[in-house]
Write a structure and sequence with these properties.
The complex is a heterodimer.
Chain A lengths: L4 E5 L3 H14 L3 E5 L10 E6 L3 H11 L4 E5 L1
Antiparallel strand pairs in A: 1-3, 1-4, 2-3
Chain B lengths: L18 H14 L9 H21 L7 E4 L2 H12 L4 E5 L5 H12 L3 E5 L21 E7 L11 H8 L3 E5 L11 H4 L3 E5 L11 E5 L37 H12 L8 H12 L4 E4 L10 E6 L4 H12 L4 E3 L4 H7 L6 E5 L6 H14 L1
Helix pairs in contact in B: 1-7, 2-7, 3-4, 8-11
The chains are: A alpha+beta, B alpha/beta.
């Protein structure tokens, strides 16, 4: 499986961990990875998910009031 | 000879701790290592998960879902300084309870000298309980903040926070929960608490050097400390989002690991509240002692003070320590205002602060020793 992956950035590490927990709870496979330097100097960690989960991810995070930025497709 | 738990200085810092606390501190120092919020390797990730879990635990304990508004600080004093120095900006009037600790009084006095605040005491009963029925009489339009010490570190009374908030309406409320958190119920959202300061090493049974503040969404305050946060690193300005805006510099990660373990493993109390009240009542029967506690037992936390008819506080505390291996704290307990309120300033009292690890046998031992001294 080489499904397209997207990178999601957060302002603070607090929200990375919170988002990871929510992904685990809602069944969205995710991985925490270092933020590529060319992308951002934000909190240093980002969440990577498969693009097919993008809509669920966005809906869930918006419901929880968590700000995020979808960065780019890998 | 049977060994008793003679440590009654839990108002200063708790002892013993749940064994998992030291294990967690050692796990971080010896095995996990790594920074918080500064890197993205596996150790940093393990640390971030542990720190954020502790933050979530605190948020849950104080009754809020907004864990990002819980910011870590080295202790309750630092947290109170974040709030007081960040909130008070110009000429304002603040109301305080009559049992405030110097962790509040000293920063407030500094702000008063800078002409930023004037300080007014809330109406109260003889034991220092805020008299909610008379609060309206001191409310003025220029009052910006009401500060209440939740549980007194001198006589142990627990203030009626919900009733106080109902009486002050929209005025911001700061609760100093240094003595109460882990022992008395706190619900920041439900009760309308705007600011809360707590420590990790007293009622929560965590390590020293841990604590923090809850900063509610209705109040805008400036940071006290500026510096690196691991976020927004391209900017010389502090981040404007929680919790980073109040967490410059690497936190006490080892301590937060320990605090997290304490929150996950709170011990069941080895005594009942009735047994604690028995201790108080038995000491009240000793003629040479005066017990300082709340007038009514329904708002009495498990801490109180005593004085002796003929011995000074330091003499009594020293005798308890040297002859009976009972540790207490004598003096003013950094709370001269509270001692003035209850009439024990400037000589102070001997404080007896109980832990969940105390058994009824420990109470009986303390009673026997004080009867023998009498």
């Amino acid at each position: 499986m080489n499904e397209k992956k997207i990178l999601i950035l957060f302002q603070s590490i607090h929200y990375v961990i919170k988002a990871e927990k929510i992904c685990l709870k809602t069944g969205i496979p995710c991985r925490i990875i270092p933020v590529p330097k060319e992308v951002s100097s934000e909190c240093g960690m980002a969440i990577q998910i498969e693009e097919s989960h993008k809509d669920t991810f966005e809906t869930t995070m918006n419901q929880k009031g968590i700000s995020f930025r979808i960065c780019y497709n890998q | 000879m049977k060994e008793y738990n003679g440590y009654f200085d839990n108002g200063a810092t708790s002892f013993p701790k749940p064994p998992q606390v030291a294990e967690a501190v050692a796990l971080y120092l010896n095995t996990i290592g790594g920074p918080y919020g500064r890197s993205a390797h596996s150790r940093a990730l393990d640390v971030a998960r542990a720190v954020e879990d502790t933050r979530e635990q605190i948020a849950s304990l104080i009754g809020t879902e907004e864990a990002q508004r819980v910011v870590f600080a080295p202790n309750a004093t630092h947290a109170l300084n974040i709030i007081l120095q960040g909130f008070v900006k110009d000429s304002q009037r603040v109301l305080i309870s009559p049992l405030e600790h110097n962790a509040v009084m000293r920063p407030l006095t500094m702000l008063q000298k800078q002409k930023k605040v004037s300080i007014v005491q809330l109406p109260h009963c003889a034991d220092g309980t805020v008299d909610v029925s008379r609060i309206q009489s001191v409310l003025k339009p220029d009052i910006s903040l009401v500060i209440v010490n939740h549980q007194s570190n001198v006589n142990g009374i627990v203030q009626p926070i919900q009733e106080i908030k109902a009486a002050i309406g929209e005025i911001a409320l700061l609760v100093d929960a240094a003595q109460s958190l882990g022992k008395a119920e706190v619900k920041v959202d439900e009760w309308g608490i705007d600011f809360l300061a707590f420590t990790g090493h007293k009622g929560l049974l965590g390590p020293t050097g841990t604590g923090g503040a809850y900063i509610g969404k209705n109040c805008s305050i400036s940071p006290l400390v500026y510096g690196g946060t691991g976020s927004k690193s391209e900017s010389f300005a502090m981040p404007d989002f929680f919790p980073d805006c109040f967490e410059a510099g690497t936190p006490n990660i080892a301590g937060i690991f320990g605090l997290g373990a304490a929150l996950h493993h709170p011990p069941a109390s080895s005594h009942s509240h009735e047994q604690f009240l028995y201790l108080v009542k038995e000491l009240e029967r000793i003629d040479s002692l005066t017990v300082f506690r709340g007038a009514y037992l329904h708002n009495q936390g498990e801490l109180f003070s005593v004085t002796h008819r003929s011995m000074s506080c330091s003499q009594l505390s020293q005798l308890l320590s040297e002859k009976y291996e009972i540790q207490t704290r004598s003096g003013l307990h950094c709370a001269p205002l509270a001692h003035t309120t209850i009439g024990t300033f400037p000589t102070g009292t001997v404080r007896i602060a109980v832990s969940p690890y105390h058994t009824f046998d420990d109470f009986e031992y303390l009673i026997r020793c004080l009867k023998e001294i009498a």
